[in-house]
Amino acid sequence: EAGVVQSPRYKIIEKKQPVAFWCNPISGHNTLYWYRQNLGQGPELLIRYENEEAVDDSQLPKDRFSAERLKGVDSTLKIQPAELGDSAVYLCASSSRASGATLVSYNEQFFGPGTRLTVL
Amino acid sequence: AQKVTQAQTEISVVEKEDVTLDCVYETRDTTYYLFWYKQPPSGELVFLIRRNSFDEQNEISGRYSWNFQKSTSSFNFTITASQVVDSAVYFCALSEARGGSYIPTFGRGTSLIVHP
User: Which of B35, B33, B42, B34 is nearest to B89 (CA)?
Assistant: First the structure.
């Protein structure tokens, strides 16, 4: 089974330029997450999708960041314009919702390899 | 608010040594989940274990073992007879379930270096 796919793996841009990251989750996973991981830190959630609906975007800097998951499968995260502080690894993860409604039935997240963004 | 503390920034051991990675957490929830992830140099976070707050039974999986103690809010991870391939950054994470999904709060990670 293929894992979470992300592209590009690396991106170097100058500040004020736009940039976009793409994620293809594991087939059948309805929940998709975007995280940002700064150097020496753990990942921090930016946005979570349930199918095509963004259900948690409270940590997404909406002035410059946007995301979409139009058909509930692939997702794109965009930054426009990029700032120096946006340099980080952007991770995508996906998970499936197991049958049943109890908390213990939710499944773990599978992460992609990430996109390392460098803003000069 | 949730918080995860991994006080050990970096640990260096020689192959075959046992090593314990510490994790202390804070939460006001009575129902929560604890995780450990491994992040090798390739960058991909690899899920190792999930434990819910009602299950304090320790778990062993091969050379890996986990010690969950609610009394001290700790969820420590031990690697027995470490190997060079264990070299990675290890993250402890805490999650409440929000809207049906885990939303983990990660610690800062512990970098483990295993020397041959």
Answer: B42
